[in-house]
Amino acid sequence: MKIVGISGSPRAKGNTEILVQEALRAASELGAKTELIALSGKKIKPCTGCGACRTDKSKGICAIKDDDVPRIYEALKEADGIIVGSPVYFLSVTAQLKALFDRSVILRYAEGTPQDRPGVPGGPEFLLKNKVGGAIAVGGGRDGGQLFTINSILQWMLMQNMIVVGNNYGLGGSAKAGMKGDALNDEIGLAMARHVGLRVTEVAGKIKG
Ligand SMILES: Cc1cc2nc3c(=O)[nH]c(=O)nc-3n(C[C@H](O)[C@H](O)[C@H](O)COP(=O)(O)O)c2cc1C
After folding, report:
1. What confidence tens digit (pLDDT) does each residue in 101-122 have?
2. Separation of 179 CA from ligand 1 center, angstroms?
């Protein structure tokens, strides 16, 4: 079983990475293989809405080829569970993560007949369908928009026909940390992130049988 964690922060080795790593550590303790993908330093171009990915000829193929997005999607396609973490940026996810979410429209345009969505282009099987997803957010404020950010992540997962889980605390991992490394001092934030890792792995294991 493979669990992939994405850190949506443009800041390398910051709080989001610490928390996603904590979740992945819990996953590996349950026997999962894990991979961390940090968006920091990666080139992620935004969707231009060109529509090339929707034509019959190029369904599911993005016109943008010169960035890191294709490789990230390959890792997601191989995963049984996906944990996405983001810093709160103005009450939502980072621009980098939103661009990754928008570009993932191609993961909804697999080959096939759109039997389950009459009139809508795309295939019956979304490529991330039935993968298990969990969310983590970290903000500098105590109530700085972590829940809005978690919601954005979970809503993206639902749009991909993924199965979302929360944790023993609520809808996902929520931490308060401002300066780089502060997340290490947020005991509850770390525990919440850890529990997201456990839930994603537990449910992914049940689905995989
Ligand atoms: C552009 C920007 C916007 C931010 N907006 C918020 C916010 O709305 N709420 C909040 O609590 N923290 C906000 N922060 C603080 C970050 O969420 C916080 O520093 C977080 O720990 C950064 O995570 P990182 O170390 O993984 O980059 C913002 C930071 C930046 C740079």
Report:
1. 999 999 987 655 444 555 665 5
2. 9
CATH of the domain at 25: 3.40.50.360
Range of the domain at 77: 2-208
Tokens for 186, please give them.
């947020």
Which of the listed residues 11, 89, 179 should we mutate to test ligand 1's pocket, taking the one with most ligand atoms within 8 A of CB? Answer: 89
Q: Which atom of ligand 1 is nearest to the CA of 178?
A: 19
DSSP state of 47: P
What pTM, to 2 d.p., does this model score? Answer: 0.95
Residues in contact with 117: Cβ distance below 8 Å, sequence separation at least 6, in sequence order: 124
Domain count, the chain: 1
For the Cβ of 122 lying below 6 angstroms from any atom of ligand 1, the answer is no
